[in-house]
């Protein structure tokens, strides 16, 4: 009986040795905007790469930046900052250069995204989605509203209908006032920023100004008649109009004649990412034409992937989601500011809001 008992032990030990251990799936941790990745795309990545994807979310670039500074650069593998924040992350030593040899799908990019001003040669980032910031308004309430930033900043253009400015980074609002004054959306000089502030300040004092409104909230408020003019993103406008045509039948959209923001959200890898190899695989995966098309068909934003365009829904291949050539010539990336100018603009904005 003793022999039998030890024989059983030896058999169990041999079995344990002969069965290979099952490795736990690798975990990829993302720091992303809310509702910005289709669940089907995440499922496909997990299955193909035997990985598990975990997402945490932020509501602004400033929140994302603060989190990475507080140690998040060691927690997350891929982050999705707006283009003009890439240089800030680089200057703060919070992101690592991308390994181009691991991103062969970069060849699918539209030419205009291969060497962006915010990140020359795409050294630190890969574009993810892009779009245009414009103005949506109730055409039945303001049929003669000029297609200009004057829709916000000229009291004569809208003397009494409620309107809001875009909530978030003050650089955008000051840049739009800069464009309104004829100084360009990229606001090239310190005096231009000061002149822009002098336009924004009285705008915020007008009785029909309701305050700063998030772009999605602005669309909701427009559909309910809470405001009649607001700053929105073209993809959000197109999606809302397609989903609720009756609620948005009188809501129109335009890109101001003086020019506006071509925004782009990117993918970067934090300086001390736990899984940089898997992060590169994920970025390259999202840059496959078929996957890129899935993403844009779900978000209603434009894809920077030229080989994905034919697979997009028809509504995404025309204005306002895909602006025509004339409008695209008026678009500018939000300027990446040097440290001294950035500090000056942030201080100017703080003082402006405090008055």
UniProtKB/TrEMBL annotation:
Keywords carried by this UniProt record: Periplasm, Signal, Transport
UniProt signal peptide: 1-23
Compartments reported by the entry: Periplasm
SUPFAM superfamilies listed in its UniProt record: Periplasmic binding protein-like II (SSF53850)
Stretches that traverse the bilayer: none
Pfam families in the record: SBP_bac_8
Family: Belongs to the bacterial solute-binding protein PotD/PotF family.
Protein purpose: Required for the activity of the bacterial periplasmic transport system of putrescine.
Protein name per the record: Putrescine-binding periplasmic protein
Organism: Larsenimonas suaedae
Origin organism lineage: Bacteria, Pseudomonadati, Pseudomonadota, Gammaproteobacteria, Oceanospirillales
């Amino acid at each position: 009986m003793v022999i039998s008992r030890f024989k059983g032990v030896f058999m169990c030990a041999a079995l344990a040795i002969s069965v290979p251990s099952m490795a736990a799936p690798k975990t990829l941790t993302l720091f992303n905007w809310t509702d910005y990745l289709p669940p089907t795309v995440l499922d496909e990545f997990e299955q193909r790469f035997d990985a598990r994807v975990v997402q945490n979310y932020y509501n602004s670039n400033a929140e994302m930046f603060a989190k990475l500074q507080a140690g998040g650069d060691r927690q997350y593998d891929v982050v999705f900052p707006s283009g003009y924040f890439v240089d800030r992350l680089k200057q703060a030593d919070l992101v690592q250069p991308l390994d181009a040899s691991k991103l062969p799908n970069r060849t699918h990019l539209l030419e205009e995204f291969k060497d962006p001003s915010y990140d020359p040669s795409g050294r630190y980032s890969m574009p993810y989605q892009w779009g245009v910031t414009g103005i949506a308004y109730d055409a039945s309430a303001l049929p003669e509203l000029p297609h200009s930033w004057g829709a916000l900043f000229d009291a004569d253009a809208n003397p009494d209908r409620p309107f809001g400015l875009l909530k978030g980074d003050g650089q955008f609002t000051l840049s739009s006032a800069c464009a309104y004054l004829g100084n360009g959306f990229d606001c090239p000089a310190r005096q231009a920023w000061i002149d822009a502030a002098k336009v924004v300040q009285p705008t915020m004092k007008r009785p029909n100004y309701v305050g700063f409104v998030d772009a999605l909230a602005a669309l909701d408020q427009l559909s309910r008649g809470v405001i009649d003019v607001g700053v929105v993103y073209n993809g959000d406008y197109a999606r809302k109009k397609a989903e609720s045509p009756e609620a948005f039948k009188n809501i129109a959209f335009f890109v101001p004649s003086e020019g506006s923001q071509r925004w782009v959200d990117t993918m970067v890898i934090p300086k001390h990412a736990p899984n940089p190899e898997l992060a590169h695989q994920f970025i390259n995966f999202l840059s496959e034409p078929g996957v890129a098309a899935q993403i844009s068909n779900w978000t209603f934003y434009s894809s920077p992937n030229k080989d994905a365009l034919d697979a997009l829904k028809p509504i995404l291949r025309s204005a306002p989601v895909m602006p025509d050539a004339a409008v695209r010539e008026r678009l500018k990336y939000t300027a990446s500011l040097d440290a001294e100018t950035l500090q000056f603009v942030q201080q100017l904005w703080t003082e402006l809001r405090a008055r």
